[in-house]
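Ticket opened by: R.M.
Priority: normal
Category: complex prediction / small molecule

The reporter submitted a protein together with heme C and asked that the result be attached to this ticket for the collaborator who will pick it up next week. Submitted input follows.
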Amino acid sequence: MIHTVDRDSRTITVSANVHAASRRRTSLIGAALLIGIAASASAADHPGPAAVAQIVHARQDHFHALGKATKSLREQIGRANPDWTLVAADANQIEHLAAALPTWFPAGSGQGHGIKTKARAKIWAQPQAFASAAKTLAARAQDLAQTVASHDPGALRLRARALGQACGSCHHRFRAHSSWW
Ligand code: HEC
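Result attached by the on-call engineer:
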């Protein structure tokens, strides 16, 4: 919160100075409009620290849910008598989370903003490669979900392995080994 206030007052100060330099007699309304525009433009380009924290924490919550559902599904399909209701719920959740994954990485939510995250700068530097890694996951999650109805543990284990490879491949390229601020 304090950071946001600092950032906003900095934006306001800069805008006000520029404005004062270019036009001596500025109406307060004009200045207020300019400040409003500057503030909203900077918020759109780079979310402030409070917004970054919110985005990163939500992203990590989503990933933890994805990890939990994947672990639960793997456990079930490794059993002699899987709980098919649970397998279906897990597969469904994995499919939905995988489809939403690309929306968890807005520009400016990487490292270097004072929030601990493992999201590497490469995600935004190589957007096509990242999008394709996310697409592979979504496709494999869909295959997995569609195989559940077969109640065939062997086929599901193959799908789960393919899914796991999509997780690992993206982590290898786009997730840092440790969190940086
Ligand atoms: C397209 C890339 C991508 C794919 C695919 C992907 N992840 Fe991740 N994952 C990441 C990134 C990047 C982070 C770090 C997020 C952060 O710290 O802000 C992460 C973080 C996580 C975390 C949080 C713990 C940690 O070490 O940061 C878990 C758990 C996780 N992923 C599980 C999975 C599982 C399970 C799958 C597959 C079902 C998967 N991920 C697929 C990119 C991906």
